[in-house]
Amino acid sequence: MILITGATGFSGRHLLRRLLQEGESPRILLKPSRRDPALPRGLGVEVALTSLADPRGVRAALVGVDTVIHLATAEHTGSEVDLLHSDVQGTRNLAEAGAEVGLRQMIFVSHLGANRASAYPVFRAKALAEEAIQACGVPHTILRTGALFGRGDHLTQSLALAAAISPLIFFLPGDGEVLLHPLWVEDLVTLIRWTMAEPERGGHLFEIGGPEYLTANQLTREVMAAGSITRLLNHMRPPYLRAAWDGTARLLPAWPLRGFWIDYLAANRTAELNTLPSRFGLQPARLEAHLDHIRGRNWTWEFVRRLFARGPIVD
Fold first, then answer.
1. Would you call 89 helix, strand, or coil by DSSP?
2. DSSP 3-state of 234
3. What is each CA distance from 315 to 9, 88, 193, in whole angstroms?
4. What's the predicted TM-score (pTM) here?
């Protein structure tokens, strides 16, 4: 039995679809909430209704489970306090319970740049979560990935939404020359599937990204071109842009770019270009080849739709 945490998130939805298409019957861990879960329509799955903050509920969710794919994170919805609570303590609860029940393997998706000494909450929380897994002795594989893209992502679609409603000029933090290492979400899903089939890889930490490095300027221009969005690209010091984005978010709750998003553009976050081909035999896809989810959509209308949506929008 496979247990997925974070199945309602971006990468979780893609993984869940793939597993069901391949005949698997995974169980998902779903946090109790009054809101409808952002799950793909028409997919029947087994649900364990509990929070990662509840050790007893987590142990119950692991009954009969031999593989855990841990994707849950609060980075796109919460504060630094939420990250330390859900991403760190929640991961510790999951890993400790996994060690107790004799879990065969745990696969954790982290970020390039994870570092307990980082000045940025997302990367500090990811590093602490990695350490929690390693300390518990549960068989594990950690995948530190570059920025993930694909339908429903927090990278290309957030850029398209924000640029579409920005009047004439779209601002990026710094000089926009920070290097990103985007990875197509379906390549990550493939890698997770292969890792599940080869638990002997356990105990390793892999840093992975796609076949190219792109500056934030290059990536933004590719997204705007795909979305037929014409804006002048300009730059602003990160503290000022963070304040501007936070203010916009208070006025427009659907505003897709928050403070954590600026953290991703604070420094180069890259891995070796040949890691996936040489270590896994996987040739990753280029960004420009998989921007169909950006093309042919009116992103101004998309923003308005999200602004007045009463429930989660699943792309």
1. helix
2. strand
3. 11, 28, 23
4. 0.93
